[in-house]
Each structure stands twice: as C-alpha cells, then as structure tokens.
Specification:
Elements (H helix, E strand, L loop, with lengths): L5 H5 L20 H15 L3 H14 L4 H13 L3 H14 L1 H4 L3 H11 L2 H12 L6 H23 L10 E2 L10 E6 L5 E8 L3 E10 L2 E2 L3 E2 L9 E7 L5 E7 L8 E9 L2 E2 L3 E2 L10 E6 L5 E6 L9 E6 L10 E2 L10 E6 L5 E6 L9 E6 L10 E2 L13 E3 L5 E6 L9 E6 L9 E10 L9 E6 L5 E6 L5 E7 L3 E7 L6 E6 L8 E2 L2 E3 L7 E3 L17 H13 L5 E6 L6 H21 L7 E5 L12 H7 L1 E6 L1
Parallel strand pairs: 23-29, 23-30, 32-33
Antiparallel strand pairs: 1-22, 2-3, 3-4, 4-5, 4-6, 7-8, 8-9, 9-10, 9-11, 12-13, 13-14, 14-15, 16-17, 17-18, 18-19, 20-21, 21-22, 23-26, 24-25, 24-27, 27-28, 31-34, 32-34
Helix pairs in contact: 2-3, 3-4, 4-5, 5-7, 7-8, 8-9
C-alpha cells in the first residue's frame, strides 16, 4: 500500500527520492485506517483542509505509528500557516522513522522558519541537502531555503531586537469586514484613511474613514465618481488629502492591462478618474503609485521594456505644464533581475519602502528600506527583518508622519475575514525621519481673497531648496518639515512682498504649524519682517544662513526696479539703550551693503536702527525678546 503525504501534493517541490525504510512499513497500516486516509485526501482536494486534518487525526488515534498520516497533517497545517501544529506533526513523523522522514526536512524547515526558528530550520535543510541522490530541482529549492535561513540568522545577530515587540493591532470593525481590506493609505495628519475593499469577493472599490480622539468612524465607499464597475485599487492619497492616484485595470480606453489614474477631491466628492497620460501608461503593466509629499514626484511599479527585471520601480516628475515627465528607472541600487513593487515614499521625502523578491531576504516578497543620499542616489536597500518580513509574501507598507507607526494588510488569526488592515510600531533603526508640517491659506491682506502662490522650504545650514510647492487655486498649502533641521520658509507671488518665516527643528519638537499668510501688495508703506536674516549675539556680521533670504530680497528688488525700501533693525531691551541703537543700525546697514554688493542701486536703499524703541512683544519673556530682535523691510 503506497501513500502520498499531503506535503508532496501541496508543496511546490515534489521529491522523487526512494529511500530504505528502516522502521516504518506503510504496508502494515490496516485497511480501515487506510480508508480514513483516502477519505482525507478527497476532503483536502475539495479544499476542506480542517476536515481533512480531523480525519487524519482519527487515523493516527487508531494507529499512532501511521507516519504518512503525520506527514500529511504537517503538510495541511503548513498550508494553513499553522506553523507550530505542522512542526509538531512532522516531529511525530520523524520520531517514528528519521530515515523515512529525511526527505521531508524541506517542508519541516519551512514551517520552522515560518515560526521564526531559523537555526533549527537551517539544521533541517542541511540534513535534507545531505541526501546523496537529490534531484536537481529539489537541490535548487533546498539551496535557496538554506541561503534565506542563513540570512535570517546573520540579520538577527547584527540587528538584535532588544526590547522591540512586533504587535500588529487590528483596526477593528469600523475598518475591517468579512471581505478583504488592503492597501491602506493615510493623510499626513493621520485623520483620514483610504483603502481597497474587495466587495462581494469580486469588485475592488475604495473605502474611506476618518478618526477623532475616540477612534475610527465607520468606513464608507468614497463619495463622487471614483468607484466604478471595474476594479480600482493600489491607491495613494496625497499628504494633503486632495489627490488620489490609483491603479485601474481593464478600464475603457486604457493603454495596457493596468494603468495609473488620478482623481481630485471636490465639494461633491472625488472627481471622475483621469489617465496620467502616455508617458506613465504603456501597453505594459503600471501599478502601485506613491506621491512625494510635495506632489512633484510620482513613484510606481511597471514591467515595461528596458528595466532590470520583471517589475521595476520608476519615478516621474510633474512638469510646469501639469503633465508628467518620462519616467526614470531608480536604477540597480533598487531594482534587480526579480520583481520590485509597492513603493512608498514617506512624508520626509527621503525614505523609500518597497517590496522585492530578489534582494536577499526570507523568501518570497520582502519589505525593504532605502534612503536618499545627499547626491540624490538611493542607499543600498535594507531588509526590514523578521518578524515584519516572514517566509510568506509581504505586501504594501505605509508609515505615518510620526516615523514610527506603520500600516499594512495581513490575514492574521484575528482577521474579520481575508485580509484586514493592521497598524504596528516600527523598530527604531528602520524608521524614517519624524515629519511635522505647516499648512494654511495664502491670501491678499487687503481683500482677503485666496492667492495661488509658490511656497518654498530651504535648509538653512546648506541653503539647499528642499521643496517648492504651489498652493491650490484658493491659496491652500501644506509643506512637510522633517525633524532634525532648521528651515527657512518663504511664500512668493508676483506683485506682492514675500512672506518670511523660519522653523527651528534641529531639536526635537512636537509642534504642528497652522499659518494663514496675508501677502501684502507692493505699495508704499507695506512692511514685512525678514525672519531668516541672522546675526550672532551682539554682532552685526551676517551669518551664512541669511543668504537665501537676502537673495530673495535682491530678486524682489530686481523684478520691481521702481521700488525703494528702508531696512530697519530692532533689538530687545537687554543692555544699554545706546548700545542697542548702534547694534541695530549696524545690522540694518549690513543688509544694505549685501544688496549693493549684489547689484542693487544704493539710491534705492536706506537703513535705520531703532534699538529697543519699537517692541512688538513683551520683553519680559525670552519668546517676546526673540520677536523683538528682528530686521524689517518697508517700502518707501
């Protein structure tokens, strides 16, 4: 009587090894118990694995030495990802006859690795590879698994978990349902979540939910014209919640099987989707979009010709005319001969997460992190490690602006049905920069009307422009502020004085900034505070961090050649009044000298120091004194 344990039916690697059976003899199994085994096979083939396991357990209860039944119990539990039950069953089989069991060390090792016991898994696969007459396919699979187990052991040694605990939390019944929910995407303030739900097991639609201090409200289909009878999925919402870019498959008029589309938030809900155009969409497959926080770059996956492997990650840039540039492959640092997909660019605009099945990992699709370097190149990807990555295929991951809260989909034991959305805390070494933000509305100071304007963020230490975004048509803006740097923040519109602010985030802070910005038309007596002009204490030499602001001022004067200005200096009330008056006068003069040196006519410029005579805040506090220490511009 010959038995085929379920692990040889259900696991991809089929062995053709014949071994001598030292102790176990399948011919000695009774016909009654064998009949239970055959019934279990039929039950499993019908897809009822739990029912098949129950029949097999009845069989081993009658004949505990029925090794093939134990092997099949292990194989079925492995298919259900019941790793410990699979391990227990395999070890029962091994105890009966280790020689007969030897060619089942491969599925045994896979379940050990599934549970996270990589050293035992490595021992088992070495035993398997020690079989002298393994066929080529089995040896290749064994070597692949061995490489993965060795990687896992080395990773754990180099990056010990310490006190870190991987504890995904199900988002609950407001978000998850008996259907599958997956591909979460969230706005920068963490208050709006959009995800894909497979409705009735067939159609993919977008659902959204908002939350307050009490938790998530019940999710509903997105309003407007975005959900259709076709499948919409793999979406990404812009950080400000105004754009949704997603994957549409087999849409009427589509360029290929799956293309990328954009929808805009309107007062009536989400607009009808628009194709991102022929540079983005091709006859090939395009999917998994992710927008940079300034909405200037679009990352996505495509299997178009000319890549490094099956599916590569590309980036396209938004052009001034509103179209997207020809996509650029992220190169061999990111892409391989295998499949890369599911890119997610964090709010810090420097940290990229993605999946790959070819960078060294645990098997299947793993999640990786890469960081943008000062030269614009991407760092060597780092595997996120176990238990975030497992021997199974990991999917998309998004990370909140706080840099530590991650979101993903999984079919864990507490799933409401199929895939559910979970949240968990990232290990500290694989976190992006914690990112704050400033948002508000730019408007005309005299009329109150919103003004489309350019908003610019500059790294004060390097003078590099980190982001330059355009407000919407009504003047609304959002700019991200990764913690760890000091920034100059400027708002510009032709015909108006620019707005100047700075954010000191080189030290940790939890501030969120909501700033509505009144721009002043260029006219006599209009004034602004130049907040990014800096001096050392009691000195009047311009610090290098002042360059960006001074250059903007020079540009303003060149673009408005009839304008004449006065630069005024102001101090707090610490120290002698006459010393403060001299210091403020010298500081104002230093600004004028810079402008003259950069091509502005001397006759258009005057300067005056006022010392502490014109305070704008109470000098009793350090905050008030800081506001009083300022440089102002006035159109005269």
């Amino acid at each position: 009587m010959g038995f085929k344990p379920f692990c040889t039916i259900l696991i991809a690697s089929v062995f053709t090894i014949q071994i001598a059976h030292a102790q176990y003899d399948p011919e000695k199994i009774s016909k009654k118990v064998a009949a239970l085994y055959e019934q279990a096979i039929t039950t499993a083939q019908d897809g009822n694995f739990p029912g098949a396991i129950k029949l097999l357990q009845n069989a081993v209860a009658k004949e505990p030495g029925f090794l093939d039944a134990w092997l099949s119990i292990g194989g079925l539990h492995g298919e259900l990802k019941h790793y410990q039950q699979a391990i227990d069953a395999y070890e029962k089989a091994k105890a009966i006859d280790s020689n007969y069991f030897r060619d089942y060390n491969l599925p045994y090792s896979i379940n050990l690795a599934g549970k996270g016991d990589f050293q035992k898994a490595l021992n088992a696969i070495n035993d398997f590879l020690g079989i002298s007459n393994l066929n080529e396919k089995s040896r290749m699979v064994g070597e692949y698994r061995k490489k993965s187990y060795e990687f896992a052991i080395n990773y754990a040694a180099q990056k010990p978990l310490g006190n870190y605990r991987f504890e995904p939390t199900n988002l609950g019944d407001s978000i998850n349902s008996p259907n599958s929910e997956y591909y979460p995407t969230i706005t920068i303030d963490g208050k709006e979540l959009i995800f894909t739900r497979r409705v009735n097991g067939i159609n993919e639609d977008f659902f959204g939910a908002t939350r307050n201090s009490n938790g998530w409200h019940m999710a509903h289909p997105l309003s407007g014209n975005i959900n259709t009878q076709s499948n919409e999925g793999a979406q990404n919402i812009s950080q400000d919640g105004q754009w949704l870019i997603f994957t549409g498959c087999n849409f009427p008029g589509g360029a290929g099987s799956c293309d990328l589309y954009i929808s805009y938030l309107t007062p009536n809900g989400w607009s009808e989707p628009e194709s991102l155009g022929p540079r983005i969409n091709t006859e090939a497959w395009e999917s998994a979009p992710s927008l940079s926080p300034d909405k200037k770059e679009l990352y996505f996956a495509s299997n178009r010709a000319g890549g490094f492997g099956g599916s590569d990650i590309y980036v396209s840039r938004l052009l001034p005319n509103g179209s997207w540039s020809e996509p650029e492959n992220l190169g061999p640092e990111i892409n391989t001969l295998g499949e890369e997909s599911c890119p997610f660019i964090h709010a810090d605009n420097q940290t990229l997460y993605f999946t790959s099945n070819a960078h060294l990992g645990y098997g299947g699709d793993d999640l990786f992190i890469s960081r943008k370097q000062a030269n614009g190149k991407w760092s060597k990807p780092i595997n996120l490690g176990y238990p975030i990555n497992t021997i199974e295929n990991e999917g998309s991951l998004v990370v909140s602006a706080d840099g530590k809260t991650a979101w993903y989909a999984s079919d864990r034991s507490d799933s409401r049905g199929g895939l559910d959305i979970y949240t968990f805390e990232l290990r500290s070494d694989i976190r992006p920069l914690r990112t704050l933000w400033v948002k508000g509305k730019v408007f005309d100071k005299k009329t109150g009307k919103g003004l489309p304007s350019a908003v610019e963020l500059t790294d004060l230490s390097t003078q590099a422009v980190l982001s330059k975004v355009q407000t919407d048509e009504t003047g609304n803006y959002l700019v991200t502020l990764p913690v760890g740097k000091d920034y100059a923040f400027n708002v510009n519109r032709k015909g108006y004085l620019f707005y100047s602010e700075n954010f000191s985030l080189s030290q940790q802070t939890d501030s969120i900034f909501n700033i509505d910005i009144p721009l002043q038309p260029i006219e006599t007596n209009a004034t602004i505070v130049l907040r990014n002009i800096f001096f050392d204490v009691n000195k009047f030499d311009l610090k290098p961090e002042s360059t960006s602001e001074l250059d903007k001022l020079a540009t303003l004067l060149r673009e408005n050649p009839t304008v004449r200005i006065q630069i005024s200096g102001h101090t707090d009330n610490i120290g002698k009044a006459e010393d403060n008056l001299t210091l403020s006068n010298n500081r104002a003069q230093a600004v004028v000298k810079y402008l003259v040196a950069h091509g502005i006519e001397q006759q258009r410029l005057t300067f005056k120091g006022y010392g502490a005579t014109q305070p704008v805040a109470d000098n009793a506090t350090e905050e008030g004194r800081a506001r009083n220490r300022r440089t102002e511009l006035k159109i005269i």
